[in-house]
Specification:
Order of helices and strands of chain A: EHEHHEEHHHHHH
Low-confidence stretches of chain A: none
Oligomer: homodimer
Distance between the termini of chain A: 27 Å
CATH architecture of the largest domain in chain A: Up-down Bundle
Shape of chain A: globular
Radius of gyration of chain A: 17 Å
Largest interface: A-B, 43 and 43 residues
Helix content of chain A: 55-70%
Structural class of chain A: alpha+beta
CATH topology of the largest domain in chain A: Glutathione S-transferase Yfyf (Class Pi), Chain A, domain 2
CATH class of the largest domain in chain A: Mainly Alpha
Chain lengths: 213, 213
């Protein structure tokens, strides 16, 4: 049975691949798992049929027959556990890959999302410019710490894992800001990751949805 | 070998149990795992010795011999996988417990933390009152959706899991705001969880640290 992923019918990023279905698409491509996509409008995401799958009314969800999961982190972890390719062998290495998935979502993404939300919802407000300085500083603190960790490493640990996939997906949200340019180590890390054929296939698939609307 | 947890030498919450070591203490108590605590000052958290354990210079970290983990979500998942009591049997139930752990950290906690950060860093600013209305609304959206999901359930799924532990730890950050009072379902859920002897022991342990300083 082909699993079904939900995604925005009209992604607010206009095909930039920043919505959270992209992480799942990328993981599915890395793992060689075929999938179908169900597109939802914003109105449909708040209807009972979708809320039964996702109590917070968001995308993505991931369905395999009767099993329904939401939260991109949980979906990625589920896929990485079921298929070979995104979790290293060995208890310690496996746990550290999972740790980086949480770090991407809980330590690196929140200041990035907060910065994006401010732009989206508060850029006409008198306080926007003053707050932006503070929000940028919070993001830079994380970028700087992550850059130090990466140093000469190719990936966060010895091999590419679900942790890298999530970290890269999170960092790509900053691409249009130019902030990554200040961290050559991170820019090179993003380039390595987005050159992966699985990333390219996933990106093309989500772009095709946007272009077909 | 007794595992070592790092925690604030002087918790900014003055013993309210809101720092992220509390989640790990609670999990360790639920699972019956003895542990030692290493207390760190804010300055020590940014020193090379700690940054080698935690590249973002935060607490908690969790060490078992050579193994070091950071991110409270990853630590909880590691513990829940190694010991019986916080992950249900059965693939589906196990995955949904993990899913709720991610939901607590990625969907429910961010607006709560953003609200707390605004109070901490921006409450003297001219825009604080106006932004607070918006931040409260974001939190209430999540509380309302979570309350609908819980309905008559005792826990998020059939039995208490790592997902409930994390969700409760996150919601407790709102306790002093009074916002939970508007959601009797959530207030009852928090009461059930915090009555657990393991929670009580963990709370007492972190409070003792604060009172001893």
């Amino acid at each position: 049975m082909t699993p079904i992923l939900t995604a925005f019918a009209t992604s607010p990023d206009r095909g930039q691949g920043l919505a959270r279905d992209m992480r799942v698409r990328w993981a599915l491509e890395e793992l060689g798992v075929a999938y179908d996509v169900q597109l939802l409008s914003f109105a449909e995401m708040k209807q009972p049929a979708h809320l039964a799958r996702h109590p917070f009314g968001q995308i993505p969800t991931y369905q395999e027959g009767e099993r329904v999961l939401f939260e991109s982190g949980a979906i990625l972890l589920h896929l990485a556990e079921r298929h070979r390719g995104l979790l290293p062998a060995g208890d310690d290495a496996r746990m550290r890959a999972i740790m980086w998935t949480f770090a991407a979502l809980n330590t690196v993404e929140p200041p990035i999302v907060e910065r994006s939300m401010a732009w989206l919802l508060e850029r006409e407000q008198s306080w926007y410019a003053q707050r932006q300085v503070m929000l940028d500083e919070r993001v830079r603190t994380r970028l700087s710490q992550l850059s130090v960790w990466l140093g000469d490493r190719t990936w966060l640990e010895d091999e590419f894992s679900v942790g890298d996939l999530m970290m890269v997906a999170v960092l790509l949200r900053l691409q249009s800001s130019g902030m990554i340019d200040g961290y050559p180590t991170l820019a090179a890390y993003l380039a390595r990751a987005t050159e992966r054929p699985a990333y390219q296939r996933a990106f093309a698939a989500q772009l095709a949805v946007f272009q077909s609307r």
